Amino acid sequence: MTQPFLPFAKPVIDEDTIAAVGEVLRSGWITSGPKVALFEQQLSAFFGGRPVRTFNSGTCTMEIALRIAGIGPGDEVITTPISWVATANVILEVGATPVFADIDPITRNIDLDAVEAAITPQTRAIIPVYLAGLPVDMDRLVALADKHNLRIIEDAAQALGSSWRGKRIGSFGDLISFSFQANKNVTSSEGGCLVLNDAAEAVLAEKYRLQGVTRSGFDGLDVDVLGGKFNMTDVAAGIGIGQFAHIDRITARRRELARLYFSLFGDGFAGATGAQLPVADFENSNWHMFQLVLPDRLPRAEFMARMMERQIGIGYHYPAIHLLTMYRALGFTDGMFPVAERVGRQIVSLPMFSTMTDADVERAVGAVKSALSA
Which CATH number is correct for 247-373, 2.60.40.1930, 3.90.1150.10, 3.40.30.10, 3.40.50.970? Predict the structure, then answer.
């Protein structure tokens, strides 16, 4: 009998959350309102009392962070080529220049030695990305930024629930951006949040998310910065609140699933197949994804087709940004970042979501081994 399709990712919305969204819809207040305020309060508590503002995506959060940091034309921002393209697009959006640094072949995160080599007098900020929820070496990152007087805008889109040496990502650092997009560990359908340093930055974030408007009294309205339309709705916040209530359980289950993946692949998997497993980090990573880098002998599209034939959902995250047409037009070419180019060509993401069963993981691992040997 053909087994049911196992998706790569699956948002899990419980009945209490569905009922809470219904209450929002019946309340008559469906745009930004009390649910947004409550969600921000809960997130702030999670991050140790730091100011938090929510938005309608985890992309605008990074753009707004750049604007809060005063970054614009003439400035350079260093980031990784292996990320969703939004990470680099927001640098262009504020008029700054993206500068890429190659990645570490083991962690697949940005190589901090390459970051330091890329710093110039025009460098103003670093945007590290925590791929699949695994942080970079935060101690080295902060020391590097301090040494060169740079801002750090953390693309922690995938890292809600991750930590560094016992401290939650978002509870320390500079400006930290999270995503609540549909396939994230905690979703609000679409949305994101920005963790800020102080009340002044929080006020500025509020201006940027809603046309630069400041209100006072009954009818006072002024605009002193150019903002956009980036506010989260109470409908989205209602979903986020329901999801966020389970963050600890979600993170724990994902770590259990990751451990099972490693156990089933076994110690000899990499040597026998040429595929590279991720770093086995069960303390810091939230295991947003479980990713393999395929051997060069097997084209990724062929492997993905084999997995789909076996009813296993598969994704890839991400192609190297600097080789996309728009970035080639800026002067980036093949061979500039060889580690990122190989990983971007051969990386795949296996099924990973909190309601997966142990049997699901067994199916996925069996399909991988079969597809690699076919």
Answer: 3.90.1150.10
